[in-house]
Structure formats: C-alpha cells, structure tokens
Amino acid sequence: YIGSHFANDWKSMVEILSSNTEDLAVGLHNLLLDMSEQKRDEPLKGLEGGTTPKWAILTLPQRNSWEETIEVKYLKSAIKNLDDILQDLYKKWGGDQEDGKFVAELKEAADVKDFPPNMREAQMPQLWAYRSAVTLDALHKKIGMESNTKENFPVLCTVLQNPLISILPALGTLVGVFEWQALCINQFSGRITKAKAGEMTVNDVLMTIPRNEAEKRLWTQAFKNFQRAWKLAMPYCEYECLQISEKMREHELTIDDPMLLCIPDFKDDGMYALAVIDWLVAQHNELVQIVAGTLGYPARKVSSRLLVQHDVIKYTKRELMRFLSNRCATWGVGGKLNLDLKQVESHLRRELSRPEITVEMRGFQWLGDAPAAGHELKQVINQRELLPDTIDRLKLEIPSPALANACLQKVQMSIAFILKSGSSLGTEKSGEMLLSDYMQSVLAETPESFMPTTAQKDVHLWHVDSFVKVLKQIVNKDPVDCMDPKYKEELPADLKQKLLDVKEKLPDQFVDLLGSFGETRLTETYIGVDYEILPTLNGIRDVLEINDEIFEEIERWLPGELKMKHWAAVYKLLRD
Fold first, then answer.
1. What is the DSSP string of 122-175?
2. How far apart are the C-alpha atoms of 435 and 390, rounded to whole Å?
3. What angle do CA 401, 404, 406 make, to 5 degrees?
4. Where are the beta strands (DSSP E) in 163-319?
5. Which helix (H) or strand (E) holds 358?
6. CA-CA distance, 75 to 281, in Å (whole number)?
7. Which residues contact 363 (CB under 8 A, 6 or more apart)?
8. Contact predicate 272/255, CB 8 Å
9. Contacts of residue 143, Cβ cutoff 8 Å, sequence gap at least 6
10. Range with lowest mean pLDDT among 126-135, 179-188, 301-310, 482-491
11. What is the Cα–Cα distance from 383 to 6, expressed in whole angstroms?
C-alpha cells in the first residue's frame, strides 16, 4: 500500500518537474542531505501563544507552519535551480554510473566508521542508508548461489517449491476439513439421495440442521475450513484419472453451492471434494516425511479421526518472510543482503515437524445406492439367502418398480444404521431379528406402509442382502420380459420408420402406459395379436386412466397399422 502510493507520487513529481527518474533521484538525495545538515528549522512566523513547536508531534497550525518553513527554506530553491544544481551534482558525484561516487554514496560503499565523529553527527550518513529488500526472489537467488542446496537445506528447498509455498495455509485447515466430512456423514449418510443432495445447498444445511448456537458455530467453522482448503488446493490438485476443467479449478465454493459438491465420493461431483482432501493430505505427508528424514527418525502417524490442531502444519509464507527479515538478514558494505540459510533451515525443521496423517474416513452411503465396497453387511451380520418360495411371493406382492424402489430406499437406510452400529450387533443371534421389527424399533418407521406382508413376516436381518437383490430385480425389471412372446414381434421396416417420424410428437406418458399395461395384462394371450393397437387402447382407456387430451394426441400421431403383436416393439422403440 505505502509502496504503491510512493511510486505514484514519484511519477507525479517527475511529470510536474518535466524531468526524469534519475535526475529526480539526484535532486531529492541532495535535498535530504541539505535538510539533514541543519540542526533545527525554526518557524518563519511565530505561532499563537508564542510557543516553540516540536516538529515530532504537530497540530494542524503547526503542520501548516512546518510546510511553509520547509517550502521557503528548501523547496523553492531546490525546484527553481534544479537544472543548475544537477550539473554541479553530477560533476561532484561522477554521474549515475554503477561505480560512480553518487551510487557509491547511496550504497554506503565507504565505511562510515572511518568518518570523523563531527561529520557523522552532522551528516548522519546511515540515516538514508540503502538496504537490499528481503524478498522471496532474494531468497531464491541466495539459494541458487549455494552448492548442494538440496542436501544441505532439504526442508527449505521443499517449502519454496510451487505449489507448496502457495498452499501452505491450506494444510492448517485439515482438522476442520475432516470435521466437516464427519458432520456430513453422521447427519446424512444413508438418509439422503444424490438427487436431494444436488438440490440442497450448504446454506440450507447451516440454517436448518444445527439445533443450537453451539452446533451452528461448529458446522459454520467446519465449512469455512473446507471452503478455504478448496480455494487454495483446487487450482493445483490432482486425483487419479479425474480431469478437472479450468472452470472447476477457478470455482470458489460458497454456501450457495449444492451439498453434492461438498461430500467426498468416488464418482460424479463428489470426486472434486475427494481430490482436494486426498491431495492436501499427500502434500502434508510428503513434507513431514522430508522433515523427519532430516531429523533422523521416522515420522509418527495419526488417524484423521483423531486429528487435532497441533498435528497439522500451521505455517505460511508470511511467517517465513517475517522470520527471514527479523532473524536471518544482515547487510554488508553497500547495503548488500546476507541471509543465514542454516538458521532458516533449522527454524523450518522445528516448525514443520508433525505426524503423518492416515486417512480413515468412512465412505458416504447414498440412499438408493448399493453399499460402498468394503462395507458389506456380512461383516456385521452373517447373511443367508431367502427361500425360493419366499422370493416368488415377494415378487407377486410387489408388482411395480415404484413400490419396490420405495421399499429399497428404506431397506438401505436400515443397512446404513446397521453398518454404523458395527460389532455392537454381533454376528449370531442378532440376525434372527425381523427386519420389520428393526425398522420399527430403531428407525421409528411403519413397515406396513411400504413392505409387503411376506417381507414383514419372513425377512430377518440375515436376509437383508438377499431381499435387496429381489427388490433390485423388480426395480430394474424390463416390462417386456413379462409379456407373452406373441406380443413381441418385430416391426416391419416401413412401419418402424413411420413410428420414428412421429416419436417426438407422441405424449411422454404413452411410453409408461405401454410398459405398465404390458407387464401386468399382456402376460398371457387373451387379446388377439392381430387386433390394431388404437382400437384396443380406446377400449381400455378407463383401465389405463388415459384422459381425453392425451388420447387425442395418441390417436392423431400413432400409425393405425400397428397391431397388438407389435406392442413390445413399439414400447422399446419409444422408450429408447
């Protein structure tokens, strides 16, 4: 901030004086030298009350008086006679060459200790001493001049590498990052679908989930840590074969983003959160391994479940530069910068000595998805297959995929709870418990509303895996599989083309009507295969609950030559 203002003022002075940077530097140097040779600048006009001002602390009238005094005593003559003064100064100082007297004086090439005491007191030659700035570039330059830097300063060389130097602050957020994931898993795993997570924003969660102010602060702070980790890591992170677009790398996470983006997963949008966590942990572990190697002993390890603040690296580039400036920088003749790299290396080894992080994060279970690999139910409760006659009765009692899907979601919610309970359930007698009783006692669900009678009476906890398979078979069932083969004749080429031409014009509901009627009513040949479809549809409108508007659209666009034997072929073509 100060530097930009100084640069702007300098540019303005060059323009006002119609001069150049070099001449202004010479003139300003001479002006400051003249001012420093004077012991005191008395005010030109007396102030009210007859007081003598102290220039160190000024009131507004004193400030005005000081400006008038400096302008009359120094500035007017310096500006008015600048061109003449410059010629004399260049003669005196030998020009602006690197080895000239002017540059030598600026850079203190002469040893001020050799100056007479009265001269040092009068001129104070070190007051405006030149000092090379302590910058990251200066540090890189110093390292480049040393030999065997990677062997002598391994931690310093590692820290200065990109992108590590830029993402150091993100390593300090890892405790909060794992806390955010734990909160999300405990609150939503096994209870929310991916579709719902895509609709729900972070703000929705922060406003509705916490039950009190303490919980709200916990959720909010955890998300802020995850948000900061994302911001710093996303421009650089990599994860296996995931291709991260530039748009995603530039995306900054906010409370308006969907929860789907904030819950780590091995596929879809959750992979970005997983990439951030995995990459940051890898950066942290690589750095602490190098530090441990320099100290001569292997790095300790800590589980991400037990991670606390003193286990993670909390260090930034600003702290490095502060230590470098305050403790490691000295200046030689001419303001030349010297940096003590050994002291920097020792400091970094102390500050960055931390344990390795072992990621032990429970996989997130989406409602409606199969349990994640490595979380099989049989590890908690030994599983058995359902009897064949039980499977047949279940399929008869759950005729539609919609009912099967509703039941499947409730069952998978139960699985999520069983997996969380772990070994507390045991593996022997706990399997005897009816699934319906478990749902009612643990989940406070009413099984009668979504489970068929057979499932309520015959499906125990040791049958859950088998029951899930049956439900999935029903959910993923193709209606065509249930139809009598006589209704599955292929369409002639000309008729197929006619149907393709009007496919986009037929109502969307028509496909569902064909599928539901086919799997429930065309299992046997009780409608003649050579009857035309349109008259048949007209006769069963009440059964299919087709309103007049939809039927008019079907009647208008569906080719009249289509027969009942083409029913399955029509369904598949329109569905695909």
1. HH-TTTT-------HHHHHHHHHHSSSHHHHSHHHHHHTSTTHHHHHHHHTTHH
2. 15
3. 110
4. 301-303
5. strand 356-358
6. 60
7. 372, 374, 375
8. no
9. 149, 153, 156, 157, 160, 341
10. 126-135
11. 77
Whose CA is closest to 226, among 165, 271, 181? 181
Report the percentage of the chain scoring pLDDT > 70: 88
Which neighbouring-strand residues pair with 302? 357
Instruction: Give the three-state DSSP class for 426.
Output: coil
What local confidence, expressed as pLDDT, does residue 53 receive?
A: 60
User: What is d(CA 514, CA 454) in angstroms, rounded to the nearest whole number?
Assistant: 29
Residues 414/419/421/425 CA torsion (nearest 10 deg): 90
Tell me which H or E stretch contains 339.
Answer: strand 337-339
* Chain center to CA of 394: 45
Triad 202, 208, 211: Cα angle to 5°? 125
The DSSP element (H or E) to which 338 belongs, if any, is strand 337-339
Dihedral in degrees, nearest 10, Cα atoms 510, 514, 516, 520:
160
Angle between helices 270-295 and 164-171 (to 10 degrees): 100
Q: Is 57 exposed, middle or buried (0-12, 13-18, 19+ CB in 10 A)?
A: exposed
In terms of phi and psi (left: phi > 0; alpha: psi -120 to 50; beta: otherwise), the region of 199 is alpha
Quote the pLDDT of residue 348. 94
Alpha helix segments (H runs only) across 296-340? 317-323
Helix (H/G/I), strand (E/B), else coil: 295: helix
Measured CA to CA, the distance from residue 51 to residue 17 in angstroms comes to 36
Encode burial over 320-339: b for 16+ CB neighbours within 10 A, e otherwise: beebbeeebbeeeeeeebeb
Q: 417: closest CA among 444, 386, 394, 450?
A: 444
- β 329-331/337-339 pair status: antiparallel
Angle, helices 435-442/401-421, rounded to nearest 10 degrees: 70
- pLDDT, residue 127, reads 66
**Structural contact between residues 168 and 159, judged by C-beta atoms closer than 8 angstroms:** yes
User: What is the sign of the dihedral through the CA atoms of 91, 93, 95 and 101?
Assistant: positive
Residues paired with residue 338 on neighbouring β-strands, in sequence order: 330
Please report which confidence band the pLDDT of residue 251 belongs to, taking 50, 70 and 90 as the band edges: very high
Using CA atoms, how far residue 262 sits from 59, 147, 363, in Å, is: 56, 46, 14
What is the rounded distance in angstroms from the CA atom of residue 5 to the CA atom of residue 449? 73
For residue 374, what are the CA distances in angstroms to 58, 363, 463, 472? Answer: 75, 9, 19, 20
Residue among 519, 452, 420 at smallest CA distance from 188: 420
Cα 21 to the chain's mean position, in Å? 46
